[in-house]
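User: Show me a protein chain along with its predicted structure.
Assistant: Here is one chain, sequence first, then structure tokens.
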Amino acid sequence: MNPIKIAVIILVNFILQVTVLNNLSIGSTVPNTSLIIVVALSLIAGKRSGAVAGLVSGLLQDVMFSGVIGINTLGLFSVGLLVGSLDQKVFKENLFLPFVLTLSATVFMYFVQFFFLYFLKIEVSFIDLILGDMIKELIYNGAITVFIYKAMLSSYKEPSVKFTRGL
């Protein structure tokens, strides 16, 4: 996928996540559209694009929202690499796969955050983390994953018929 297109997607998503999606929160939970986009890009465009998108998105989130640089960067980068390794092995039009992978990636991100904070000796209750935020974010991410994935898949598809000049 074109690097400029990826950069625009990440930037537009970040702006929407900071402005519009904060007003659409349920409780104090907003969907992690950066995670959904990293999963979608990884499935559609491969490991390299997914890892770069995860690195940039995670760094943006860490700089703007997190007191600790690296939590989201490490998690989203890892998600991009792991999901991107499935690129050539899956049927990309299957809408169930990005749904399941987004839910799995959401759980993975919470475990990464918990362990990162635990090793930094920052007091976090695992039960509160799981019951408080993760379940709500799982529902929210799952509800919008298919719509984001379909939009990204349709924008990525190349025409199946290519015309060339005859010799």
